[in-house]
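Batch queue: ligand-bound targets. Current item pairs a single chain with zinc ion. No template structures supplied; prediction is de novo from sequence plus SMILES. Inputs echoed for audit trail.
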Amino acid sequence: MAVPKKKTSPSRRGLRRAGQHHKLYAAQPYSCPNCGAHSLPHTICPSCGTYKGKEFITFKAEEEEATEATEE
Ligand SMILES: [Zn+2]
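Prediction returned. Tokens below.
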């Protein structure tokens, strides 16, 4: 029977258990379907302010651009 050569230290044991935790709760790579910027899943995109195709936050810069476009 294979026997471990050294006793696993509490630190190493903790790292092993935390590794599973970090794997479970690591942020998934997610990019906004509207603008393609990296954002967190299930949250409003910080760069364009949309979530599930709906616009929730309108930024002042975008509003100014929109008004400029209509004036021209
Ligand atoms: Zn976006």
